[in-house]
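2024-03-11 09:14:02 DEBUG pipeline.ingest accepted 1 chain
2024-03-11 09:14:02 DEBUG pipeline.ingest length=162
2024-03-11 09:14:03 DEBUG pipeline.predict start
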Amino acid sequence: MATEALAPLDHLLAERACERLITEFVRTLDLGEPGEVAELFTHDGIWEWAEGDRRIEGRDALRAYFGSRPDDRLSRRICTNILVTLTSGTTATATTYFTTYRVDGHTEGMEPPRLPAQVGHYEDTFRKVDNQWLLGTRSTFLAFAGPTERIGPADESRGGQG
């Protein structure tokens, strides 16, 4: 079904479903169980990086990859400029800008502000499977990136009283 054949409301609902997946992805990584991100992908879904040789393919591999995230990682991702384009009644693409703030070694409380660990954009494809929109592929493009800072109990830069 071509996008021209979609009723305007159906077109908006499809775009919104894809936008919600983008938001749910980062919410699950930052505040949920990271391994559950795999459920947002098709069974043959792929996450890859434009540079390097990182390519994770299939829900089981995605679940293992995201589930291996360090337990002491504190992260927050900010997504903006989300542009979803329907390519048919059951497929879409999107570009999303993101900024990632992240430290390892976090135990509790608030951390002082830091520079972002990453700034870049995602290029996604979506497929509607069994009446549900899912990520088919996510490609990560980094414009700025650095290592994840490791903090510890003796880290003097941490905020707090006394």
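2024-03-11 09:14:41 DEBUG pipeline.report The two ends are 64 Å apart (CA to CA).
2024-03-11 09:14:41 DEBUG pipeline.predict end
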